[in-house]
Write a structure and sequence with these properties.
- The chain has 990 residues and is α/β, with parallel strands linked by helices.
- Helices cover 52% and strands 12% of the residues.
- The chain has 43 helices and 25 strands.
- The strands form six sheets. Strands 1, 4, 7, 8, 11, 12, 13, 14, 18 and 19 form a ten-stranded mixed β-sheet that branches. The protein has a six-stranded parallel β-sheet with strand order 22-21-20-23-24-25, sandwiched between helices.
- Strand 20, helix 32 and strand 21 form a beta-alpha-beta unit.
- Helix 12 packs across helix 13.
- The longest helix is centred in the N-terminal third of the chain and has 30 residues.
- Bound molecules: N-acetyl-beta-D-glucopyranosylamine.
- The site of N-acetyl-beta-D-glucopyranosylamine has 18 residues, from helix 17.
């Protein structure tokens, strides 16, 4: 049956319309010829192509690059053997060259080289950090506890099986498939500095050296990238497209070197060139194309997919400005644009040959063919060109290089004034503006739906391009579009990419002429949905008016999906109007994206066990009742390659010395550390490493905040997005309370503490921004009060992001995970802290529940209402914060200090926070997040933290057990579960 009989969107004359297909072909065919820069890019050697665009920006820095073409040619001629190979034959010669150069190095190599080559041949586990593997002490150490480890195995097994119904086996890399040529790398760096900047090493700025180093690394990546794609062509594995508005990648250089197993070699090489690798890494701006956990999860997933050897694309948007740069002025957050592409991006590759056209607005016209089938055409639309940029995603030590493909927008046609009549002129300007605006900036909202028109445009823009390309790629190698789902699966990262469902239906019906039922079968076997929140304000609901105006054909399809779904509800629950009202996709003037994703998705998953249970029993109860088989849990995870191996090299080496290096790709190996938790020597070593990391962070804080902190104090850290439900306010109110206590009882025992915060607030989120100001105001008072003898320090780290997070996690003693129970879907920071040996103080929320289950209640500090209690209060009432205010003098004192000038001369400044807790204005519910309710139990838990810390042995043991028990929380485990239970991908090795 054809899509819909009823054309709800104005169907105007169809006479003018030729075929849609023709138009697309024409547009694409025109494209390359016109774009000068594209042609240039295409001609330039691979490496240059990427920077072609930025190189053309003539700044002083790039002046040296200016004669790009010539430079490139000369370079090719002079370049070291490997590079000289002409671009075309490069792929063929890759294998040869690679093995040749290894052989050559080995032949030349004196003792040290030989050892490296040997290491390279040895099984993955030995090769990793060549140095430490070679240390015989390491070996003995690794062997020693083996027996003991076996003893603890039984008990740990039970713990694991409690939380993990199915044991996840992660395939191990059999042998290292990659080599890194250090000498070639050095030559390449020197060469790049010369050709890019006409400088010698000693003249180049750190930024220039960073560029040169990155291009040298990219050279070594490209061979593997091509080999991987060749292997995928041959083996034709099923591919997952991870569709996400956000990829919070952070920096690429260090991570790429780590995953090439080249970090230590590169570090030595740079040292030999007189350069400190840390300074070079610090030159790279974070790719902050995400807000928080959701975007960082996507980045960790890409790392794991490549490491485990699965064919995967990340698909997203190449925002010109990612997450804003946060500056703190006078204690307030100020948002500064983050021009992350300013110096060009050495790792990206522009791929104009995969350009797609995306259409907005206009109207749909219908034409019936001779067989009586309706055909739908979008007309009078505005179009924009989607041009992909590819970023390599390197698997750890296995030679697999997947792709993160992010789309840039360009105007469809170049501006040719002469050929435009008035109407065309107007349209051309509008299309130019559309292209300029659409990818301009990431909306800085975390867990919050803002309903902006441009946001919906962004969503459809990258989804249409990604789905078009996925279909086109499939059709290049397969004949039968009806079997698309056998080779392709789309994972929708939250509801943001949900238009993919209707877009796939559109392509299948309008371009491949499948019937509705055929298209529906393919679509519902292709799309799967992950829910990341139950926060009501985060749910995406688009007004019909906006949705249908912007995406007329897509809206028709959504309406038809809705019509059929309502019929299904009515069959199942005859006469039950309430069900329809609650479950319909289009209702009350709104398009509900979560409902669409659930109805069309073959899988619906939450991101931690508790969260999934809440979805099934509360938020999505009706849907669970109707489609129980779709619901499943995938507890989040994080990549240990970035958050331990790269972020905490001291601990990483220590761990390797004790349990070998298999943990890098098999994190549960860390359980071998359990036997050391009570070993005096190991405890001392471990705590010394923590101390070194605290010194490193203290130095960072001194440099960036000008505050002196004592690395011997307890580092108590809360870093995450600022949101009321995450309750940074609870933390700072408690600090105010402690400060009062110390002032009132100067003689009281108090172990010095440094409270560290880091958080960005959404630009328009008043209470969140005010909380930042409050933290800084308390810091001002407390840090400068000589009378408390430095017992408390409060630090707000400016511009919290992935790169400084790595340093912060490594240095933390205490991990603050204090969200209102039921509100934090999972959390992933909690896992990064745990992996780095911080002990959690937290509520039974999100993945905290599973963390406590792994590490044991004795090794965490749990407090506060349970999720059931919170939900009960929410549904049935019974909580009045005023009662606590009236009866608890400590709480009352702290709250009064918000409005009595203690922390601000302007006594009205913090009034909104005060009001949010007590609702003196009766405008909204008081203390929505149960801060006062949990205050006392939080304070008691903090007291227990202090007692535990004073007992050095106990603390060391707790911290070490946290590391030892963190194995479950690797994103490798999460991805393996997605692969086995949802996506059913085929494993590929090179
Ligand atoms: C966030 C949750 C976190 C969770 C991440 C990743 C959104 C909408 N959700 O608890 O708040 O860890 O997703 O799943 O950003």
């Amino acid at each position: 049956m054809a899509a819909t009989k009823k054309t709800t969107v104005t169907a105007k004359s169809t006479a003018k319309k030729t075929s849609t297909d023709k138009k697309t072909t024409k547009a694409t065919a025109k494209t390359p010829a016109k774009k000068v820069s594209e042609t240039k890019a295409a001609k330039a050697p691979a490496k240059k192509a990427a920077s072609a665009k930025s190189a053309s920006k003539s700044t002083a820095k790039t002046a040296a690059k200016a004669p790009a073409k010539k430079a490139a040619e000369t370079k090719a001629a002079k370049a070291p053997a490997k590079k000289a190979a002409p671009a075309k034959s490069a792929s063929k010669s890759t294998a040869k060259t690679a093995s040749k150069s290894t052989a050559k190095t080995a032949a030349k190599a004196p003792a040290k080289k030989a050892a490296e080559t040997k290491a390279a041949k040895a099984p993955a586990k030995k090769a990793a950090p060549a140095k430490s593997a070679a240390k015989s002490t390491a070996k003995t150490a690794a062997k020693a506890p083996a027996k003991k480890a076996a003893a603890t195995k039984a008990s740990s097994k039970t713990a694991a099986s409690k939380s993990e119904p199915k044991k996840v086996r992660i395939p191990k890399a059999k042998k290292p498939t990659i080599t890194f040529d250090k000498e070639l790398f050095k030559r390449s760096v020197l060469y790049n500095v010369r050709t890019l900047y006409r400088k010698n090493m000693d003249e180049a700025t750190p930024q220039q050296v960073f560029q040169a180093v990155s291009y040298a690394i990219k050279d070594q990546i490209v061979d593997y990238w091509m080999k991987t794609q060749e292997a995928y062509e041959q083996k034709d594995p099923k591919t997952v497209y991870y569709l996400s508005m956000e990829f919070l990648m952070g920096r690429a250089l260090g991570n790429n070197m780590i995953n090439l197993m080249a970090y230590k070699d590169a570090k030595d090489a740079l040292e030999e060139l007189g350069v400190d690798i840390n300074i070079i890494e610090d030159q790279e701006p974070d790719a902050a194309l995400g807000n928080g956990g959701l975007g960082r999860l996507a980045a960790c997933f890409l790392d794991s997919l490549a490491t485990l050897g699965y064919s995967a694309y990340g698909c997203g948007i190449r925002y010109r400005y990612g997450m804003f740069k946060q500056e703190i002025r006078d204690g307030f957050q100020v948002e500064v644009p983050d021009n992350w592409l300013d110096n060009g991006n050495p790792f990206e590759l522009r791929r104009p040959e995969y350009t797609k056209e995306v259409r907005f607005g206009g109207y749909v016209s219908v034409r019936t063919d001779e067989n009586g089938r309706n055909h739908y055409y979008q007309e009078g639309y505005q179009a924009v060109k989607a041009v992909p940029y590819d970023h390599p995603i390197i698997g750890y030590g296995n030679g697999i290089v997947n792709t993160l493909r992010i789309w840039d927008a360009e105007p469809v046609d170049c501006f040719r004034l002469d050929s435009f009549d008035k109407g065309d002129y107007q349209k051309a300007v509008e299309q130019e503006n559309l292209a300029r605006n659409i990818v301009e900036v990431l909306y800085p909202n975390d867990n919050h739906y803002a309903g902006k028109e441009l946001r919906l445009k962004q969503q459809y823009f990258f989804i249409s391009a990604s789905v078009q390309e996925a279909v086109a790629k499939y059709m290049r190698n397969h004949k039968n579009i009806k079997k698309f789902y056998e080779k392709v699966t789309f994972q929708l990262n939250d509801t943001h990419p949900t238009v993919a469902i209707a877009e796939l239906m559109r392509i299948l019906m309008d371009e491949y002429y499948l019937t509705w039922d055929e298209a529906w079968e393919v679509t519902t076997k292709t799309c799967a949905y992950t829910n990341h929140t139950i926060m009501a304000e985060a749910l995406e609901k688009w007004p019909i008016e906006l949705f249908s105006r912007l995406l007329p054909r897509i809206y028709q399809i959504v309406e038809e999906i809705n019509r059929r779904f309502i019929r299904e509800i009515e069959t199942r629950y005859p006469g039950n109007k309430e069900k329809v009202a609650k479950m319909a996709i289009v209702y009350d003037g709104q398009v509900k994206m979560a409902h669409l994703a659930i109805v069309a998705g073959y899988s619906v998953n939450g991101v931690a066990r508790l969260h999934t249970e809440i979805l099934k029993n509360q938020e999505l109860r009706d849907f669970y009742e109707m489609f129980p088989e779709k619901f499943n849990n995938k507890t989040n995870g994080i990549t240990q390659r970035r958050f331990l191996l790269h972020g905490n090299p001291l601990l990483a080496d220590w761990v390797t010395e004790h349990v070998g290096d298999e943990w890098i790709t098999d994190l549960p190996q860390l359980k071998g550390l359990k036997v050391y938790a009570s070993d005096k020597k190991a405890q001392a070593e471990f705590m010394n490493i923590k101390y070194q990391n605290k010194v490193r962070l203290a130095k960072y804080i001194k440099e960036h905040n000008g505050i002196d902190v004592d690395p011997r104090s307890i580092f108590d850290v809360q870093v995450k997005r600022l949101h009321e439900y995450k309750r940074q306010l609870l933390n700072i109110l408690h600090i105010m309370y402690l400060y009062n206590e110390i002032k009132e009882h100067p003689e009281m025992e108090f172990y010095p503490r440094t409270f560290i915060f880091g958080a960005k607030a959404a630009a328009g989120y008043r209470n969140a921004k005010l909380t930042i100001k409050l933290i800084n105001s308390v810091a001002d008072v407390v840090n400068n009060d000589k009378s408390i003898d430095g017992k408390i320090k409060v630090v707000f780290i400016e511009n919290y992001r992935v790169s400084n997070a790595e340093i912060i996690f490594a240095a933390a003693d205490v991990s603050e995970q204090i969200s209102t129970a039921s509100k934090e879907a999972s959390g992933t920071g909690n896992m990064k802290f745990m992996l780095n040996g911080a002990v959690t103080i937290g509520t039974m929320d999100g993945a905290n529940v599973e963390i406590v289950e792994e590490v044991g209640e004795d090794n965490a500090f749990i407090f506060g209402l349970s999720s059931d209690e919170v939900i009960r209060y929410e549904n049935f009432g019974g909580y009045d914060p005023m009662e606590i205010f009236n009866n608890d003098p400590d709480v009352r004192k702290v709250l009064m200090q918000l409005i009595n000038g203690t922390y601000s001369e302007d006594t009205e400044l913090f009034r909104p926070l005060y009001n949010s807790l007590l609702n003196t204005l009766s405008t909204s519910k008081a203390d929505t997040y149960f801060i006062l309710k949990d205050f006392k139990s939080y304070a008691a838990a903090q007291k227990r933290v202090e007692e535990a810390y004073i007992d050095k042995k106990r603390w060391a043991s707790m911290a070490m057990l946290n590391v030892a028990c963190s194995g479950k929380f690797t994103s490798d485990r999460t991805i393996k579960q997605y692969v086995d239970e949802i996506w059913k991908l085929d494993h590929v090795s090179l």
